[in-house]
Specification:
This protein is of the alpha+beta class. The protein contains 2 helices and 8 strands; from the N terminus they run E-E-E-E-E-H-E-E-E-H.
């Protein structure tokens, strides 16, 4: 799995999950790595699919492997901080809504509050 932190002056780009687990909650864009794809490629693809934004990787935030971080099972995630190159922000794929929000003001799915904290520290 990959998770993508897209910072903005007004907060962080978050998506509202359109499906379980955590349906209706805010989360970082991200998802599963496809066969034959690197985690870097997956992060860029997932960002584009879920947000409409073209991004490039700035740096690795960390690897998150807590066995209870995902109710679907033990899923390890590689998180990246990215910068926006272009595109038009729009909700798509697994996202029912998108926004630039203060992550401290909303309840976040998974361990995404920790990932954001690690990315901005």
């Amino acid at each position: 799995m990959v998770d993508v932190v897209i910072p903005s002056e007004a907060g962080v780009v978050l998506i509202r999950r359109g499906s379980d687990p955590f349906e209706g909650q805010w989360a970082l864009p991200g998802g599963f790595v496809e066969v034959g794809e690197t985690v870097h490629e997956a992060a860029v693809r997932e960002a584009a699919e879920e947000t409409g934004l073209a991004v490039e990787i700035s740096r690795l935030v960390g690897v998150y492997s807590g066995p209870d971080r995902d109710p679907r099972g033990h899923n390890v995630s590689v998180a990246f901080l990215v910068r926006v190159l272009g595109g038009q922000m729009r909700a798509a794929s697994d996202a029912s809504e998108i926004g630039v929000l203060d992550p401290a003001a909303v309840e976040l799915a998974f361990d995404h509050a920790r990932i954001i904290s690690d990315a901005v520290d």
